[in-house]
Amino acid sequence: MRTRFALPAVAIVTTLGVALAGCGSDTTGPSASTSSGGSTSSTPSAAVFTTADVTFLEGMYPHHAQAVQMATMVPARTTTPALLDLAKKIAAAQKPEMDTMTGLLKSFGRPAPTADPGAMGGMSGMDHGGGSSMAGMMSAQDMTTLGALSGAGFDRQWLTMMIDHHSGAIEQAGAELKDGSNPEARALATSIVSDQQAEITTMKGLLAA
Known about the structure:
This protein has helices at residues 2-23, 51-73, 81-107, 140-147, 151-179, 183-208, and strands spanning 34-36, 39-41. By secondary structure, it is mainly α. A hairpin with a 2-residue loop joins strand 1 (34-36) and strand 2.
């Protein structure tokens, strides 16, 4: 009688052991890694980005920094109201965008960007004769020449250079919209294209006046 009842007990214990082992074998969950375009996130909430997003942000930061530098040159060299207003608008728009770029790169686990275009990977494009090949960037000589001007001569040179500069920014933003995947970086690129194209139209009108 004791032997006959012992057998079901062993079977029950075995069945429970298998069930418990099965409960511990689930490897899915938040720690599972996912990847997108060369970046790997350890959690579902990690930033999703590609190499194109990083290249765009690292390249656009020094590009914006130079535009702000050019904008700050204006008040001491001209009294043209339209140029003064435009320079103020450019600086006011691009400084916050630089903060956005810094924040996004930090969220990607990348170092803070620098205003020195040579310190980052940069992007190929127009070369203005001073070693910088990033699209639309002015060379050190360009900036020195601009700084030596004033009045109408400064106005014309500044507008000409800023049109080239904005065109380069639009080119870089276009590359991000083509190859980037991060939603915030793409939204920034879209804004740059829209805003800077409108400013190019304004600047061409001032040159033609």
